[in-house]
Design a protein that fits this description.
This protein is α+β, with helices and mostly antiparallel strands and about 170 residues long. It has 3 helices and 9 strands; from the N terminus they run H-H-H-E-E-E-E-E-E-E-E-E. Strands 6-3-8-2-1-9 form a 6-stranded antiparallel sheet. A 3-stranded antiparallel sheet has the order 5-4-7, with no helix packed on it. The two termini are about 30 Å apart.
Length: about 170
């Protein structure tokens, strides 16, 4: 039995489809300044922000917003024509949601178009790449589990980041 289907068995297909459609539906954006609540001294206290606004306004290639013991929230921005580079996280799962721009993601050798509202789950060990093939920045956020970057990392450009495949954890 497929373990992924087994885990989802209690959730009806219609319920799951409704949840995903609502979570990924485009929303009208109201431009407001981003209010990022500073990370508390103790990660167990949590973190709150308007993730859509923070992502849309992020100008950095990579910005770690919050690191907890078992997960990490990271903002990313790819310039037109830029890509992450093919990589694999052998011991970390990722959830990625696109907030602006267009591009494509390659997962395990298959490529898929992505745009505002696209969401991806990349299990540990799956080779992947994200490419901005649009004319505007491709901005998205990533939830890693477990964390993959040093806490509070800010890399203004891709040049400032380690080469693909280099992991901090």
């Amino acid at each position: 039995m497929n373990t992924y289907l087994h885990r989802l068995a209690p959730v009806s297909a219609l319920g799951l489809a409704s949840f995903l459609a609502a979570a990924c539906a485009p929303r009208e954006r109201v431009e407001q300044p981003v209010t990022v609540i500073p990370a508390p001294a103790a990660p167990s206290q949590g973190f709150i922000t308007d993730i859509e606004q923070a992502t849309v306004q992020n100008e950095f290639f990579r910005r770690v917003l919050f690191t907890a013991p078992y997960s990490q929230l990271v903002l990313m921005s790819l310039r037109p024509g830029e890509e992450l580079g093919m990589e694999t996280h052998p011991n970390a799962d990722q959830f990625i949601r696109v907030e602006t721009g267009t591009g494509y993601v390659t997962l395990g050798g298959q490529s898929y178009q992505i745009q505002d509202g696209s969401a991806m789950v990349i299990p540990a060990g799956v080779q992947h790449n994200i490419v901005n093939n649009g004319s505007a920045p491709l901005r998205f956020y990533v939830v890693y589990s477990p964390p993959q970057q040093p806490p509070n990392t800010v890399q203004a450009t891709k040049r400032d980041a380690p080469k693909p495949g280099h992991h901090h954890r």
